[in-house]
Amino acid sequence: MFNTGRGRVAKPSKVRRRLGYTPEVRAVRQAEDEVNRMSSRLVDAMGIPGTPSHIPAAAVPCSGIDPDFTTYYRVDHPWALWEADADGFDTAMDNLRTRLPEMGWRITKDGPMNSRARNPEITAVHTTSRHHMVIEALKTRSGNLKPQIDVTLVSPCYRAPEGTDLSRA
Which domain of life is it from (predicted)? Predict the structure, then answer.
């Protein structure tokens, strides 16, 4: 861990070595808006009717780089497509397999989840922006839980502009 106390952040050279890239300086709102737009495009790419959850993307600490959340951050956006017909989940996943590469995503995993239900899962990385995502078509769920498609979209780490208070972001 690079951060040894409140407000102590790793030197940029250590951050670069740890991440494999130099985090871009970007305003939090701009990064959140970008992730929200990407999520919206994913709903369209699925091509099935349903209601996306209305959880907005949010800045969180950049794990292992700045756990005190003072300088570096990433944007997480976990959301779900509800009220979708489970019979359409195969169509949604097929559409994503075709459309994601056209949208700049490289699929890194396409197969069943490591669970008893073996629901389909696609994992992908955006080739230029370094965003990554996991999409799970939860056709079979325990208890009385309704089927849904879960999406987790995560940005790369960013460096907040000078003077940004991430605790208020």
Answer: Bacteria
